[in-house]
Fold G-protein coupled receptors family 1 profile domain-containing protein.
Amino acid sequence: RTNQKQQNYEGNEHNRQSFSLFDIHVLVPVTIISSIMFFLGITGNLLTLLIFKRYKEMRTTVNMYLSSMALSDILIFLGLPSDLYRIWKYKPYIFGDFLCKFLFYLSETCTYCTILHITTLSVERYFAICFPLKAKTTITKCRVKRIILSLWVWALLTASPILFLFGVEHRNGSLPDEAKECNYIERSARTGLLETMTWVSTIYFFLPVLCLTLLYGLICGKLWRTRHKLRGPQAASREKYHKQTVKMLGKDLIYVLGGEVNSIRNNRIYSPLDGAL
């Protein structure tokens, strides 16, 4: 009887541990790093929004895009605690079907929206550097507001299939209470929706990267051709502005790559029961 109790205890302990996606030596550092990122991300982006709202001189067209991206980042970080909960205990999912769908949808929408913002901002920088006179008349605050609104609407629409792809589902072969998982729905995945969203994410990656590569090449070419035409203090000021522009473009490209990693994570969610990654 003692051996049977010991076996039952070990079996229950194994089942309890199997509810985590990773070993404890992986979960602890990931949780610490994610907690730091959560605090810094929320604080930094909130400060960006507060500064943009308080100081009128900061309300330039570029900062309008940056403030919108800051809002997108805040929404992504708000879903981080749920992600941490899921890697510590992927089942049973206790927050319900609506929150499961909504958090995946919110993360995907904000990822798409940020990528669209970066691409659009790069187009604006291209016109501002290569065609400055034309940019002054075409790139207005009112027009930028409409563009930002359209980017959010487009991101919401293109991410909407996520609402039908993910949800809380009972996996076969386990008790109902133990089988509640926030994962992709097998029925929807069999219809090809998972592959469709994977292709959508791929398009959101390659098209912006191609666009950014082309624009950055044109911008760098323009900056290189004009760096020898100016002399004196004006040249030093322009050189400083050029360096800032190149740094911003490099950060934009890194952000697109990072955003795509998050999108792939959503569409290829790990499940220990079916082995999907």
